[in-house]
From TrEMBL:
The lineage of its organism: Bacteria, Bacillati, Bacillota, Clostridia, Eubacteriales. It is found in: Cytoplasm. One of its GO terms (cellular component) is cytoplasm. The active site is at residue 115. This is Nucleoside diphosphate kinase. It comes from Desulfoscipio geothermicus DSM 3669.
Length: 149
């Protein structure tokens, strides 16, 4: 099974979308193996979004992601990285299909509600950035046999 890093951004928390978003992932069949709320520091934001350093939207992006608490989680499941990205929709909410999270709840690329790792390698990097190994719980659920053949 694959793991991915998912984060409900400050706008998602402020707009009371935490339960709704987690519920979508749960109902899909993704397993929550780590979950916490935190306030991202400037330093952590720099590291998380390191690939975007120097781009014109970098400063506003760091301002936004550090502007209030986020809900961070690790989700596990078959093709979890792609599954979450598909459920989120593309970066610009106005380009995202209506049924996706960004397509349903967002209006602006700079307020796009949710983050999900874009590849298994970035997932591993981001999980390690936000969670200590002991914060990630390995466990079985009886429902697994009803989710997977
Ligand atoms: P994603 O979050 O879909 O993985 P990304 O990694 O390319 O997108 O960018 C990270 C975040 O930066 C994105 O969620 C919103 C912001 N962003 C990206 N491109 C942008 C742009 N052209 N203008 C403003 N903000 C942008
Ligand atoms: Mg990205």
């Amino acid at each position: 099974m694959e793991r991915t890093y998912v984060m409900i951004k400050p706008d998602g928390v402020q707009r009371n979308l935490v339960g709704e978003i987690i519920s979508r992932f749960e109902k899909k069949g993704l397993k929550i193996v780590a979950l916490k709320m935190l306030q991202i520091s400037r330093e952590l934001a720099d590291r998380h979004y390191g690939e975007h350093k120097g781009k014109p939207f970098f400063e506003p992006l760091v301002q936004y992601i550090t502007s209030g608490p986020v809900v961070a989680m690790v989700l596990e499941g078959k093709d979890a990285v792609t599954t979450v990205r598909d459920m989120m929709g593309p970066t610009n909410p106005l380009k995202a299909a209506p049924g996706t999270i960004r397509g349903t709840f967002g209006m602006d690329i700079g307020r796009n509600v949710v983050h999900g790792s874009d590849a298994p390698e970035s997932a591993a990097r981001e999980i390690a950035l936000f969670f200590a190994p002991e914060e990630i719980i390995e466990y079985n659920k009886n429902v697994d046999t009803w989710l997977y053949e």
